[in-house]
Amino acid sequence: MPQMSPLPWTLMFMWSLTSLLSLSCYIYFTLNKSYAKNSNYMMNLFNMKW
After folding, report:
1. How far apart are CA 35 and CA 41, in angstroms?
2. CA gyration radius for the chain?
3. Has UniProt tagged this entry with the keyword Membrane (predicted)?
C-alpha cells in the first residue's frame, strides 16, 4: 500500500472542520432568530448551566 502524503488529509480535515463550524453557526443564528421572543428563557437556561 503506497503511503499518501499527509497534506490531502490535513486539507480534508480542515475543510470538514470549517464546514461543520459554519453549519453550526448558521443553525445557531437561525434558531436565535426564530426564538428571539424566548430569549429570556434561553438566558435562564444558560445561567442554570453555569
Report:
1. 9
2. 19
3. yes
